[in-house]
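note to self — DONT lose this again. spent like an hour looking for the file last time. sequence + predicted structure for the chain T wanted, 465 res
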Amino acid sequence: MDMVGLKEKIAYGLGDAASSIFWKLFSVYLLFFYTDVFGIEASLAGVMFFITRIWNSLLDPVVGVIADRTESKRGKFRPYLLYLAVPFGIMGVVTFTTPDVSSTGKLIYAYVTYSLMMIVYSLINVPYASLLGVISPESATRTVLSSYRMIFAFIGSIVVLLLIEPLVHFFSRDKDSGLADQAFGWQMAVAVFAVMAVILFFLCFLWTKERVRQIEGQRHSLKQDVVDLLGNRPWWILSVTGIATLVFNSVRDGAAVYYFKYCIAGNPDCGLGFTGISLTFTTLYLVIGQVANILGIILVNPLSTCIGKKNCFLFAMLFAAVFSVVFYFMGERDIVLIMCLQALISMCAGAVAPLLWSMCADIADYSEWKTKRRATGLIFSSSSMSQKLGWSIGGALAGWLLAFYGFRANADQTVDVQNGIRMMLSLFPAIAALCAAVSISLYPLHDKIQRPLNALATGLDGSDF
């Protein structure tokens, strides 16, 4: 019986809405902010993303280990949501603040502030992700919770994508004063989102419960936890799949703003208007993507029930690869087709998002089944690490590819640059999607194998895997 009510499912989703507010800002707008507003070269921004995100991804397992060993009256994972929410919001604003210093000073500032932001992000997001494994022991309930998480994540993203450009414009005090004024607009717009994120994390803390408790006598060493993890074949496969999936998403996200600014009629403002608010093609494209993500999440529950999580993931990535290749052949006049392809690709991406986390919870159960020890935080954090590695590689590739093709900020781009940007939205993501499909095809856990906290007493040792 599902012991998790609607309010708690929504509350768990609110936590990822909070995280996704900044995740989406970082994925879609941070590279653009650094190159076109802050004033960093694309290649240097790519290097910074790679260095800061790589070492930060290695922090995730450390946070997971600490969270696994946290004992409090509020649980293992929920206290992190309470105490890290405000620092999370503050660091988001600081990251999008432009200091009045030299180019070298700006680069140092970017390294320091973005590194600190990612540390705080790990400290709050790893426990939040691990919370999925202890709210309920039921695999089906976890898939539902994961779907709620992803739906609210994309709702948070939609809010960001709809409001960021109007808010930047609104907070720009002197519309003709150039980049300095844009910088202030970005700082204040992000401050609005920071307040939203803090409130959402507080609500997630207040309205969720931790029900799955560590079995008495399960105390074990970190060394043993790591040995168990490294011997977990399904974890390795899902980690590689997560890396490829996040490369697919982050390269596409990183290129989107550049695509509409520099490849579509050379005009970022050629869009629609309503109620006096301009809706650019960039915003329309991104919002369509988030809405389609939600549709993919809604469809994934019946589809995964029918054909299994593995097959659902596999077919979604294969279709995403095909649609991405077709995207390459779109011209600047094919706006309707561009938006349709964005919807189809994003539905596929939305479908796999909850599957990644639901399968991660299954792997945590499989590990306990096999080893008689539970390390939820370590497994979730190490899976988060693999996805951050994919985000790191994809984000760095976006900057490096722009530099490779000769991109120059706030200038007319050559045909080679425009073609490179198109490839960043099509062929390069298609390759990553195919890699994810190949990897997940090797995933060995069957949906019919139901979970260890109830099965430990049956005497099964996991050898059939």
